[in-house]
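Input.
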Amino acid sequence: MVFGILGSIGPIGFYNHVKEKRKRDIVDRLPDFLRDISGSCSSGMTVFDSIKSASDGDYGALTDELKMMTSQLSWGIPVEEALNNFAKRMNTNEAKRLAITINKALEIGGNTPSVFKAAAKELDQMKRVEQQRKTDMSMYSIVIFISFFVFLAVVLVINSTIFAALYDLQSQMGGQAVGGMKIASIDPNSVKDMFFTFIFVQSLGGGLLGGFMMEGRLSSGIKQAFILVLVSFLAFKLFF
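Output.
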């Protein structure tokens, strides 16, 4: 059951983590790209020429997206549509707001360099707000993860002390009665299964909740849940 669940959520969680990391890297480089576009437009270049010139630079993961955008523009696709396609591929709030802001500004007309510069400033502000949110929520996530390891340690201690003593007493008494009361038989395997169920639910739920609170996406919680479930399984294999 454990390996089935790990095999199901593991690839999904780590794939989403890699995909979201790439998107985040692209969004982080967008302000630099927009400021460069603003500078190029200020020097007299068109928006198409500015994007084409920027695609030859180094913007990390954003470079490939700029090359795709340049190819679309060279095929005769309008700038507005190329930006909308970029926002759909990214599927992030920052990219969608960026496309809407620039398209509206280009539609109305005016000082194009100022539009790109204002868009870069807005993305910087959104980035700071997101970082502050992650900082605030990460403390709650850390508490959840610490609680999981404390609960795991408590279960291991209870099993190795209290229940170990009960098993020893059970073996010594051999089903005898004490004071007219017969000591019930305790199945160690049933107790082990019970404890593992407790830890499994705690690791799966804590991982999903902690990752969701930290990143704001359930896909991040899947990755954390995978790690905690794996830790639980290894702990029971080693100490039970």
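Strands lie at 177-178, 181-182.
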